[in-house]
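Supplementary Text 2. Reproducibility record for the structural model of the 273-residue chain.

All settings were left at their defaults, and a single model was retained for analysis rather than an ensemble. We include the record here because the model underlies the residue-level annotations in Supplementary Table 4.
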Amino acid sequence: MKKIFFIMTSCLFVLPAFGASVVASVNGKPITDTDITARTTLMARQGQTSTDNRRQALQNIIDDNVKLAYASNFGAVPDDKDVEKELKKMNLGELSASEKAMARSALKAEIAWQIIVARTVLPTIEVSKEEIASEKAELAKEHGLPIEMTIVRLVDVPAEVATKLTKPKNCDDAIKIAEDLGGVPQKFTALQYELSADIRERVINLPKLTWSPVVDKSVLLVCSSKKTAEYGKLDDIIKQNAMYKQAMFVADQQLKQLRRKAVIVINDDRYKL
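Retained model, structure tokens:
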């Protein structure tokens, strides 16, 4: 009787592991309702919120499984020590056992996918000089470049005074011209990306030692500009960013193909498309 009782209690002990409803499966691997709850909690901690979080959570878990299965073909799945090290850097706070397991799984899939992109996609990407130049022009327009500019600014400039501002020989000459006309010139030096958007827009294409048109009763003049050491690295940075952006687009298309090939079964009507 004791032996029979022990077997019965053992069976009762393992039953709760199968208690969570299986919402879906990927290549035969089950995804439970508990998994989805853990993933939505993780997403919320990372600032990802939407009205359809549970459906998105399921999609993320499916993608993780697809990524890891593909990465295993290339020996690109990171070991648990590396995953744990990166997980600590994320500072997700206190997590339940299921949430921590989900965080490990998600991070392992992301690291594996980044390795795949670096090994198989990035080497196929090429970025032309024209693309770099275009990206640089857009960067200059939106945020400015690491170019140091010395600028003279006049404020509260009457229209009749602005017409008398002649072309200076240098910065000191510009200040003297402004002062002779009764102005109080302000001279300052800043990196282009440190300038406010309105000032940057007015000076970015302004020829040196040329007074700008009057805007809001102010006039600007660029005395000088010089490229910083940071500017010398800019082309490489822009190229790397452009390559990465293109690589991630290609990888996303590849993931869609892998997802179509996977055997995905959705058991819960709430998660069906």
